[in-house]
Amino acid sequence: MAFFKPSLVFCLFLTFLSLNCGPCHVFAKVYMVVMEDDPFISYKVNHKHIMYVFSVRITLACLMQISLTKEFLFRRGEEAQKYKQVATTKHDSFLDSFLPIGSYKKLYSYTHLINGFALHAESAKVPCFLTPKTIRILSRAKGVRLIQEDIKMVKTSTHTPNYIGASGVWPLLGGSEHAGDGVVIGMIDTGIDPKNPSFVSSNMSSQAKSPPAGFKGICRAGNRFPADSCNGKIVGARWFARAAQESGEFNATIHYASPYDSDGHGRLAIYKAAYPFGGYMSDVIAAVDQAVEDGVDVISLSMAPSSVSPGPASFLNLLEVQLLLATKAGVSVVQAVGNAGPDENTVVSFSPWILSVAASTTDRKYRKSIIIGNGKSFSCGALSAPTQGEIMYPLALADDVMVVNSTDDGYNKCGDPKIFIKALVQGKVIICTFDSSDYYDDVDLDSIIDTIQTIGAAGVIITDRSAHDVDIEFEPTFPTTVPSAIVLKGSDMRVGS
């Protein structure tokens, strides 16, 4: 039986990846570089011994119908650390030989699932990080397999466990004290709040349980995350934000330089790589690499690229390939497919080798109210800040505050800021209408929000212009940067006006 070699996977799947050398932009500051050298999981120290154990475990698994134990497949502990040190030193030497000292900062060395590093520019003399010429130099350097620009990531988790009845499974698996014993779940998400009652054990003996022997993770203390936060239910915690820090989006005061989750959120090992603004792929790759090195059994990934990747196949980016390597290392990977539906081409979990999870519906609703001058209140769907202060804002129908009135679809005009009369819209809440029959095909709520922000209006109400109740199967809710409300019943707005 041939020993698993990740480099073969790269040859098959990264051949189709093209280097992004397009125009520089605000986020084009970090690149991930994959080297041809083997990562730790294919390092052939005592290869014959590993092959023997691998073959024995395969035979036993077939006979006893049990899953493979990862700690028998790959060496960890001191050997893994030694290999990491050697590979990291080699990365540093490689960079020093090609780039001037002080012109870059190495953010991470990836050594377990892939062999490579993430890089950011430091020199103010370079107007845009890694100019095309510099990228060409690195890409042609001996030993470089791939260079990929960092990608913005978004959070993709939501509330569903109680709704789908997951809590009813625990009694079947040994109850709250024993269900999940021996299984470590690596959570790559927004971190964790160690004070949450979910992580307080009902008895001291269970609270003091040690993590499984095969788990090598650590509890990294920090702001609002003391060293004793790892108590048997939380067995490890780290945070990854170097790319986010370099982007300027990370603020240690509000985002916490620790595994702590300011939002609130078996045995868990926490790898914080998501923040209120989302995150970056290079940070997520570092988290996945560390989680597998630590010895987790399952990775729960509540992050994904902010949009469907271009190219011949959506799953051919570095993260998706790394998730394949994680599954080859014996780790089950579960990823949320995103919250951008229900339109086509909105699924952002692409890998056919992992478990992608989606909710066709949920019991969660985000409710707001529209209060008009006579004190009457109307319920609506929205996920935005309220209008500023306690004052009442005047309403204006979009058709009445445009340069030219017409019988065209009012919604379409709400997506064009050039035809609004700014003197008539500033400080007002604009009512934009649409035809419910075109909802699934033509309504672009993002363009409306962008227009309202551009023209300086105080907010927007989006509603159907028909006289009947709107026949839409769901109430759309998406976060907006300006006060907004979506009213699905045209009759409500007729009463309000």
From TrEMBL:
Keyword field contains Iron-sulfur: no
Name of protein: Uncharacterized protein
InterPro entries: Peptidase_S8/S53_dom, Peptidase_S8/S53_dom_sf, Peptidase_S8_Asp-AS, S8pro/Inhibitor_I9, SBT
Gene Ontology biological process terms from the UniProt entry: proteolysis
Record organism: Digitaria exilis
Matching SUPFAM superfamilies: Subtilisin-like (SSF52743)
Keyword Hydrolase applies: yes
Residues annotated as domain Inhibitor I9: 75-150
Family: Belongs to the peptidase S8 family.
Keywords carried by this UniProt record: Hydrolase, Signal
PANTHER family linked to this entry: PROPROTEIN CONVERTASE SUBTILISIN/KEXIN
UniProt-recorded Gene Ontology molecular function terms: serine-type endopeptidase activity
Domain Peptidase S8/S53: 180-361
Region forming the signal peptide: 1-28
